[in-house]
Amino acid sequence: MSSPAGDEHTARELRTPGRRPRGPWVAAILGALCFANTLINGYAYDDRVLILENPRIHSLTNVRQIWLADWWAHAHQTADENDQRDRLYRPLTLFTFALNYAVHGLHATGFHALNLLLHAVVCFILWHFAKRFTGDSAVATITAVLFAIHPVHTEAVANVVGRAEILAALFLLGGLLILQPTNATPGLRRGLLAMPLFLAAVLSKETAVCYPAVAILVLLAAKQRPRPHPRWWLTHAGLLIVPLLLYFPLRYAALEGQLFRAQPPGVLVNPLVEANFVERVIGPLTIFGHYVRLLVVPDILSCDYGFAIINPQAGFIMMSLLGMIGAGGLLIALVGYARPAPIWRRLGTLAAIFLVSYALISNTILLIGVTLAERLMYWPSVAICILAATLITEFWRRQCATGKTLARSARLLRILGILLLVAIGLRTAVRNSDWFDNYSLFSRDVTTHPQGARLNHMYAVELVRMATGSPTREIQHGLLTEAETRLSAALGVDPAYARALALRGQVRAELGHDDDAFLDLESALLLDPNDRDARRALAQLRLYGVTDAMTRLASLREQVQQQPDDPARRLELANALIELGRFADALPELENVLALDPAHTTARRRLAEALALGHQNDRAIEEFQRVLTESPDDWLAHANLTTLLAENDASAALHHARRAYEINPNDLRTKLNLAEASALDGQTAEALTMYQALLDGPDLDDDNPLRSVIAERIRQLQRR
After folding, report:
1. Among the listed residues 416, 391, 427, 388, the one whose alpha carbon sits nearest the alpha carbon of residue 144
2. How far apart are alpha carbons 117 and 112 in whole angstroms?
3. Which fold has domain 452-541?
4. Which of 27, 206, 259, 531 maximizes the CB count within 10 A of its CB?
5. pLDDT digits 0-9 by tens, 588-598
6. pTM of the prediction?
7. Average of per-residue pLDDT values in the chain
8. Burial environment of residue 701 by CB neighbours within 10 A (0 to 12, 13 to 18, 19 or more)
9. Cα 206 to chain center, whole Å?
10. Is pLDDT at 646 greater than 90 in this prediction?
11. How far apart are CA 170 and CA 153, in angstroms?
């Protein structure tokens, strides 16, 4: 890849007295130094779920749970979350967590130390890869140093779970280094040695599936003498496919027959889900613009870029323009590949490597679980760093060498370059401290991105957690008040944010604002009937007032023990359990009621409701249909079937919504269900009419949070 002129320049520079030493250890040490302060950090963001609350990493011999299970398999999630979440398979990363646990338990320092060591090793190998790829030690040094200290890598290194990115890059670089020859055509042995490393890469992070295209591009760019025979290319292409032939069956088995998520991600994590055609075109440009900014000017960083940090409805904005400029630069490099100059061929190859690495996270064809994330740029930035180092080196040699235009300014430019690197490294070190824990992270990021709906909610969750353990009532009140403010900010961005509504209701109940708490909790349950925390909080407010819910529950259990054959007592106990979110406990009580009185329609309906709330949808549908067989005008059964059938059978859901409305036209739930069922069945005009009637009618007070929810839904439907 290097030209004779380039080699001459490199040799001359290396012979120049006083030059700084160039080698892989420079970048490795700088990378370790920049991230050294992560060693004092605790756990933040996904670390809590995937490490602190993950029993699977407590045993190295737990083969099935580590090697044949979903990344999120241990997490307790609702049915909707299971449908919408990413289907992730990262067993090798999970195994390294288990190794950490086997050595030192849950002490965070050990986890961070391994991340730090792995990052230093990646920097070390990157120098060797860049040197072999370009034939230029100066380019290799600049590449590895830029990569080592860049702030965009903070999330991957400072967040323990970011280890998936580091491992994938480590094994990708290792495989490419083995596969890439120096000045000769690699034999079959190199391909066989690279195969397990590429397999390890995809077992660490699924985005590493780009490795076959990257490997082919690297081989095409290498100086191979003699020129390989087509059979050689077929053989190596076959070898590159083998790891995927092993990976995908394993992934399919581990994810229980689902290679991808069943439903699109939620709009809060990826706003492009609800974008129209024009927004789906502009959106990826905007996202790429953010990545360009993060790579070039990484001053403002965030752990979350969801709604409304990324807002498709904003149209073509400055970030979209920046993305277009960045895409234009890559296109120029790609077109330049056809030019005979070696430098252009190198730039074209690097642009192609970046594009095939970036394609899976670009949200162009495939919508992933996030719009963008800084950790996702860890591997793709390898090509960008080599490209930038190539341009910097070429500029220096053409403009700053002896006798060139800027020769007199060379010393000043070198000093400025060093100062810039110091500034970049300091920014990284400062950002590392933000990842100390959730409070530090969310409080910092919500300041820089106050419009982030999820950021405000996550910060509020942390404030509520801190309030629970606060030493004084005054401190608790202050934390809860701040949490209420943040939740209101989240709902100002997305009025239909059911979790934020539910949590604000619970916070307001703790603050003694019972009327406002009622409105929030009831609205949250209309949006998400499966929210157990909201149901439990509402039960404590509505059913028992100041009486302790558990005391009331114990009393009901005692009454059932005294009168086990009384269906009314058992039904009352079952209702209390359902209201408290203990749906599984309610099932046997309801089944006992039906055993005592098979014609008890109310008990059968409550059984169906408990099944639905416990995510046993098929059984719930059967029980609701049995209710309607016995009582065709049971509007609650029709209303529940509307919700259960909406996802898979919109026309049937609309039928039940209409029947529920005909039977009970004055209930708010039947009106909302009919409007939404009409929208899901494609009858947008009817849905808009009904939603507008709700806003204009007497059903909702001015301070009812559902008004904002409905207004937002109207805007969404109008955009269709």
Report:
1. 388
2. 9
3. 1.25.40
4. 27
5. 989 998 998 88
6. 0.83
7. 86
8. exposed
9. 13
10. no
11. 14
Positive/negative CA dihedral, 197, 199, 203, 204: positive
Q: What are phi and psi of 367, to 5 degrees?
A: -85, 120
How confident is the model over 612-629, as pLDDT tens digits?
A: 887 788 898 999 999 999
Alpha-carbon radius of gyration of the chain: 30
User: What is the Cα–Cα distance from 545 to 261, expressed in whole angstroms?
Assistant: 42
Least confident of 310-324, 520-534, 599-613, 664-678: 520-534
Quick count: other Cβ atoms within 10 Å of Cβ 581? 19
Cα separation values, 422 from 34, 39, 146, 380, Å: 10, 21, 11, 23
Helix axes 583-596, 601-613, angle to 10 degrees: 160
DSSP code at position 19:
P
- Can you spell out the DSSP letters for 246-301? HHHHHHHHHTTT-SS-SSPPPTTT-GGGG--HHHHHHHHHHHHHHHHHHHH-TTS-
> How far is 209 from 220, CA to CA, in rounded Å?
19
Residue extent(s) of CATH 1.25.40.10 domains in the chain: 452-541, 632-720
| 130 neighbors 138 (Cβ within 8 angstroms) | no
The DSSP string of 540-570 is HHHTSTTS-HHHHHHHHHHHHHHSTT-HHHH
Whether the predicted pLDDT of 317 surpasses 90? yes
Class of domain 632-720: mainly alpha
Please check whether residue 35 is in contact with residue 428, taking contact to mean a CB–CB distance below 8 angstroms: yes
> What is the C-alpha to C-alpha distance for residues 49 and 139, in angstroms, rounded to an integer?
40
Task: Return the amino acid letter for 121.
Answer: V
The pLDDT assigned to 266 comes to 77
Counting beta carbons within 10 angstroms of the beta carbon of residue 586, is it exposed (0 to 12), middle (13 to 18) or buried (19 or more)?
buried
Would you tell me how many other CB atoms lie within 10 Å of the CB of residue 293?
18
Rounded distance, CA 173 to CA 616, Å?
Answer: 46
pLDDT higher than 60, residue 273: yes
Listed residue (508, 516, 514, 511) closest to 474, CA to CA: 511
The predicted pLDDT at position 376 comes to 95
As a whole number of Å, the end-to-end CA separation of the chain is: 51
Q: Give, for 534, the enclosing helix (H) or strand (E).
A: helix 532-542
Give the pLDDT score at 21. 47
When pLDDT is cut at 50, 70 and 90, the band that residue 206 belongs to is very high
23-55 residues labelled b (16+ CB within 10 A) or e (exposed): ebebbbebbbbbbebbeebbbbbbbeebbeebe
Q: Which pLDDT score, from 0 to 100, does residue 189 have?
A: 81
Distance between CA atoms of 446 and 458, rounded to whole angstroms?
9
The token duo for 495 is: 């009025």
Q: What is Dmax (Cα atoms) for the chain? A: 103
CA dist., res. 488 & res. 211, Å (int)? 45
Handedness of CA 315, 321, 327, 332 (dihedral sign): positive
* Residue 5 confidence class, pLDDT cut points 50, 70, 90: very low
- Lookup: tokens for 315: 């149209």
DSSP category for residue 353: H
